[in-house]
Amino acid sequence: MNYTVIDFISLLGAVCLFLYGMKVMSEGLQKVAGDRLRNILGIMTKNRVTGVLTGIIITALIQSSSASTVMVVSFVNAGLMSLAQSMAVIFGANVGTTVTTWIISAFSFEVNISDYSILLLAVGVPMMFMKKSTYKSLGEFLIGFCFLFMGLDLISKYVPDLQANPEMLQFVTNYTTLGYGSVLIFFFFGIVLTMVAQSSAATFAITLIMCSQGWISFTLGCAIILGGNIGTTITPILASLSGNLAAKRTAMGHVLFNVIGSIIVLCIFHPFMELVADITKWCTDTNPLDISAAQEAGMADSTLLDPKGGLTSKAQACVAFGLAMFPTVFNALNLLLMIWFTKLYVKIVCWIMPAKHKDNEEDFSLKYIGRGMLSASELNITQAQKEIAVYAERVERMLNMARDIIHLQPNDSKFEETYNRLEKYEEISDRMDIEIGNYLNRVAEGRLSPEGKMRIAGMLRVISEIESIADGCFNVAKAVVRQNQNHVKFTPGVMQEIDKMYDLVGSAMKNMMDIIREMETPEDSLIIQAYNKEREINNLRNALRDSNIFNINNKEYGYQEGIFFMDLISEAEKLGDYMLNVVEGVKHQFQNAE
């Protein structure tokens, strides 16, 4: 046997180069259109038809159904898309992914694209060193495109020569003559292969090589591709594991769609193969099933087989076309059938995965982000934005509790209850700050555009300042406790001044929340208001400080009362500063990254 361990390792390296090319090509396009993809998904999912078209377009653009479905799972997890909307996009993604198979099929035998890879690299690599981020991302796309076809060419080079090493295929041929049993075996092989590679495109490329080399028939090649349709669901499943219930339901809907469609095709496999073969013959004048029959009969003089029993270039092109046509017809028919049952899908998924309990706002849990939602870094920013909004809402409740505790009597049971809630919220705030910060850092480690990195930097500043607001609210409560321990009571006039200051702080908090909820498109008028409100807070603090000294000198109240009064006023002024810092963090996201 002439096939060595070095050849096998080289084959593995070729597969890795192919997968890396797919990853770089997909990420390059994602960075070019990251924000646009978010906007498109938000706008074009209002009904089933536009949702399907969106799924097709997005998947065709980024060349990966796994990336687009993970993106959809992430958007559902972030509350930007309903479960019903996500189903339509996922249906379309299954059709859009066939674009990749057509690219591989078109270039694999008709044109040896790897011969031109060096020329494309000569264009792509210099683009990586350009200043404009769009050119850099396009350069990445070209480099990934080159690597993909270089890997495909090397796979073809390093697969074992069956004529020279017939014993290597003995284990395969043992399973190719079992009739429908062979179809099932290779169907499950396709599931496992795609789960391991996490790429249906890789499965298609390997199947294409196997068929062109004569390892398996066209029929069994289609069985592998059909299995790959189920195997590709593993990526969104993994992405949803640490997501919320809606994200898990979306991943389950994707599984159901692919599994049900695949089972239907398995039940009518041979008639379906006839349909695909007839379409292929109509387009290429050659029936791929005739090629399989010629191989089985050993027709060496056939125009479809060369004298050594291998496929001629005409037969290879026909098989490549047929293998690309199979998932196209399958996914198109599956879409046309299943799109009418979207609402039923949602009901089935909700029945399979019911809600166990309602979330307790005082339990620590991240609602929109998790460790499994990082497959497309440029598109993970939205989850963080939604989580930051939840974080800010929790801290806003702390401010309301801090205002309440100022008016509560120390012997009131509600005083202790409010203080304990503030203490618990402050601990949760610290943990949320760490978790969101760690998530943003993991996103920043991915392949982000300069604009994306700038947004991450701004968001890290925002969560740090929100955590400072939480600390400030708890400091108010601790100041009130110290006041009670010293048996100091405020006069009605002092309480009115305190309420006036905290009304201003509450107004600034409301303005900050409006900005955070629209973090991607903050209104200039709200940002201007934030500066104005912080200035009002500072002016009132200065006025109260002067009046406090005057009142103490004029014996309006005691020195100790004046000290605790200014403690509460100073804490309020600090809260205003932190809120303005949050607004400036939002502004920082959109500074020029060049």
Task: Break the fold down into its secondary structure elements and pairings.
Elements: H1 5-43, H2 48-62, H3 65-77, H4 83-96, H5 98-108, H6 117-128, H7 133-158, H8 170-173, H9 180-197, H10 200-212, H11 218-231, H12 234-240, H13 245-267, H14 269-284, H15 288-297, H16 313-338, H17 342-352, H18 381-407, H19 413-444, H20 450-485, H21 492-517, H22 524-553, H23 559-588
Helix pairs in contact: 1-2, 1-7, 2-4, 3-4, 3-12, 3-13, 4-13, 4-16, 4-17, 5-10, 5-16, 6-7, 9-11, 10-11, 10-16, 11-13, 11-16, 12-13, 13-16, 13-17, 14-16, 18-19, 18-20, 18-21, 19-20, 20-23, 21-22, 21-23, 22-23
Keywords:
594 residues; mainly alpha; single chain
Could you walk me through the main structural features you see in this protein, from its secondary elements to its overall organization?
By secondary structure, the chain is mostly helical. The protein has helices spanning 5-43, 48-62, 65-77, 83-96, 98-108, 117-128, 133-158, 170-173, 180-197, 200-212, 218-231, 234-240, 245-267, 269-284, 288-297, 313-338, 342-352, 381-407, 413-444, 450-485, 492-517, 524-553, 559-588. Helices cover 76% and strands 0% of the residues. The model is unreliable at 166-170 and 357-363 (pLDDT under 50). The protein is built from 23 helices and no strands.
